[in-house]
């Protein structure tokens, strides 16, 4: 296993400052992209969806919980005993919802599995984010998740709901702080696809991911 070269404090600061300049440029580019994202048009959601929740059946409007904005993460579901480690890691990284609620945003999970399987897993993981079942798959299909995962954002005007944003794949991954924090480390995510110096530890992506109670020591 190789390690970063050892240099003087002055050399390290010089290299760090050069990278910092690039990071600041990236931050400004991300700010500009976010500004462009906020200017996206929106599309009316005309279809009626029904979700099973612990308090009964809910519509998409009900998932807003009275707020004006809603983020829905479609959690990949392949049945009890085959829980998605990537989706689970993403949810592990979600912060306390009070911070979103303070900005008039609700957050919910949706899966195609039955609530009788979803709720025990939710308890096992110690999550309290609202999680709804949509077994017919219509919502996932229409929102770009299919049998996989996706994140969608909605805005409501009275009882009218509009879809404003969607992302999946690495667009969702970048929202999870474990991955973004690993990007700050000298070994990175330690996955084969990464451009890392020769000799750094690397393994196949996905395979190292575990449910947070399955890593052991």
Which helices and strands, and how do they pair?
Elements lengths: L8 H29 L5 E2 L5 E4 L2 E4 H4 L5 E6 L10 H8 L5 H4 L3 E7 L3 H11 L5 E3 L4 H5 L7 E8 L2 E8 L2 H4 L3 H6 L35
Parallel strand pairs: 4-5, 5-6
Antiparallel strand pairs: 1-8, 2-3, 4-7, 7-8
Structure description:
With 217 residues, this protein is of the alpha/beta class. The protein has eight helices and eight strands. The protein has helices spanning 9-37, 60-63, 85-92, 98-101, 115-125, 138-142, 170-173, 177-182, and strands at 43-44, 50-53, 56-59, 69-74, 105-111, 131-133, 150-157, 160-167. The strands form two sheets. It has a six-stranded mixed beta sheet.
Structural class: alpha/beta
What share of the residues lie within helices? 25-40%
N-to-C span: 22 Å
| Radius of gyration of CA atoms, rounded to a whole number | 20 Å
Largest sheet: 6 strands, mixed
Mean pLDDT over the full residue set: 93
Quaternary structure classification: single chain
Neighbour order of strands in the largest sheet: 1-8-7-4-5-6
Q: How many β-strand stretches?
A: 8
Count helical runs.
8
Low-confidence residue ranges: none
Strand coverage percent: 15-25%
- H-E string: HEEEHEHHEHEHEEHH
Shape: globular
């Amino acid at each position: 296993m190789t390690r970063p070269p050892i240099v003087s404090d002055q050399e390290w600061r010089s290299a760090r400052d050069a990278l910092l300049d690039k990071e600041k440029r990236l931050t400004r580019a991300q700010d500009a992209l976010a500004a462009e994202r906020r200017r996206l048009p929106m599309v009316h959601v005309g279809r009626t969806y029904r979700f099973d929740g612990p308090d009964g059946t809910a519509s998409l409007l009900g998932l807003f919980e009275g707020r004006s904005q809603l983020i829905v993460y479609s959690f990949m579901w392949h049945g009890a005993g085959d829980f998605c480690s990537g989706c689970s890691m993403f949810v592990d990284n979600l912060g306390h919802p009070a911070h979103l609620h303070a900005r008039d945003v609700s957050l919910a999970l949706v899966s195609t599995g039955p609530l009788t399987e979803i709720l025990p897993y939710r308890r096992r993981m110690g999550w309290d984010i609202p999680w709804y079942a949509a077994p017919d798959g219509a919502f996932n299909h229409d929102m770009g998740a299919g049998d996989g995962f996706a994140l969608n954002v909605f805005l409501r005007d009275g009882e009218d709901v509009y879809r404003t944003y969607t992302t999946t794949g690495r667009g969702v991954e970048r929202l999870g702080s474990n991955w973004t924090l690993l990007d700050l480390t000298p070994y990175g995510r330690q996955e084969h696809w990464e451009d890392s110096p020769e000799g750094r530890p690397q393994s196949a992506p996905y395979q190292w991911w575990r449910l947070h109670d399955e890593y052991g020591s």
